[in-house]
Amino acid sequence: MDFLLSFLKSLPGSFGQGFAWGLMAIGVYITYKILDIADLTVDGSLATGGAVCAICITMGWNPWLAVLTAVLAGMAAGLVTGLLHTACGIPAILAGILTQLALYTVNLRVMAIGDEASATKATLALNPDRNFLLVSSRYVRELSLRNPLVLLAIFVVLIIALLYWFFGTELGSSLRATGANGNMARAQGINTDMTKVLGLVVSNGLVAFSGALLAQYQGSSTVDMGRGAIVIGLAAVIIGEVLLDKVFTNFALKLLSAVIGAIIYYIVISLVLRMGLDPNDLKLLTALVVAIFLAIPNWKGRFFSKPVKRGGAANA
Amino acid sequence: MLDVKDIYKTFNPGTVNEKTALRGVSLHLEDGDFVTVIGGNGAGKSTLLNAIAGTWLVDEGSISIGGVDVTHLPEHKRAKYVGRVFQDPMMGTAATMQIEENLALAARRGRSRTLRRGIAREEREKYRELLKILDLGLEDRLTTKVGLLSGGQRQALTLLMATLQRPDLLLLDEHTAALDPKTAAKVLDATERIVNKDRLTTLMITHNMKDAIVHGNRLIMMYEGQIVLDIAGEAKKKLTVEDLLAKFGQATGSDEADDKLLLG
After folding, report:
1. Which single residue of A121, A219, A255, B65 could bond B81 by disulfide (Cβ 3.0 to 4.6 Å)?
2. Has residue A166 got a pLDDT over 70?
3. How far apart are CA B222 and CA B211, in angstroms?
């Protein structure tokens, strides 16, 4: 009974984490599902979003402006990966890893801006008592408008609406065509280098947005906050897909399923932690789960496909 | 309409895989010409089409389409002038997108993509009418994902997409080779109708000598990266497969002019 009660009490927190990471998962959806690129920049750009937002807020900026700046920083990171990939011909995965690594230094330095004592800083604390924050986990169980879930849910709805509109436009369609069949896209006059860069910019902007909200939500920005982010994002996308692919056929709902996937992920995490899992084992568990879910469609095709009846070809 | 002047292309230069695929090819097409291209494997047929489409840039020579020098333009910029159908039915369409979405992408070939709606409402009616021409029952399946269509249906759709915006030049790279004979005939039939209707300047590679003779007003044969035979007008109408084989022997000075070589 106690267990159940404490689990229920943890639910709002899981929803908060799930919403914030859900925005990140939508960013992963854009690159992984639409552009067909596994973009590892996100591990860095998530932390960049957090770092830029946190430093702006501690300098006394309006949090909305701080979030906007963080988004722009994330977009710049996406631009770098995009140019490394297209203009320099580096494979997408490697281009992402390079940017991610470079961002580690950038993030350490960003968080030390204005600090005369040191040139780098690994964490930056935000406090709802001292700083004006858009979202804070402190109020996550409160029945009021400052409950972070309200604003986070609004953000999720707005972003999904915006992306739904965008991917229905001529430009958005050319982005989808690039991921679906680059040959066809180029034959139809689409500059696939440009669309890939655009996709990476939009995706990393979203990831930084998520990082900016997370830093406020959890009350600190750390240089490690993005470690393994791509795997969590993929987990969210895959959980959403496995559970809801058949039900959610509309594009907007597919994006929503990534957010739902993120929420489910955090509910499961809080559950296994409550059941006594060592938090240090979390990343191993997450990696395992994602590996298994990525392997399932492959195994299905290899081991469980119905064999063509003998003589099928001759009778066709 | 098309002016190819003395183009050369060598792949993997300086390696053991070095292959000179085009050795000084020149070709001039008048407006409305429908030229069929034959030749054995490795003769340079597809390479010639890819050179014109801009898949990569040629080493030497120049290419102009409709008076525009495209020699140094990348593939996506040449798409403004060129409609293409590939040999592989999977290559010309986006499988995860709907039929109407594919058509809408093709309708905007050569134009800049803006933030306007990807498909305007009035376009759908137009697409429905155009799909009827294909006679494959696709007009009632506008929102079907292209991945669910058969190879023949996809190839016919690609053909429609390539010609939706009247191209200055239509490139068909053995576009019926991967289809069963019945479907191939149907797609070829649709090709003939569409090309005639819009008087499209067309370059069609085929592995079938009969098709090469029956279709178009001119026939060229390639061998080892060069055009070795060029027959047009009345002379082409009277051609037979035997003639072609004999002429191939004369042109190349070899006696290996058998079906196997030509049909690849």
Report:
1. B65
2. yes
3. 16
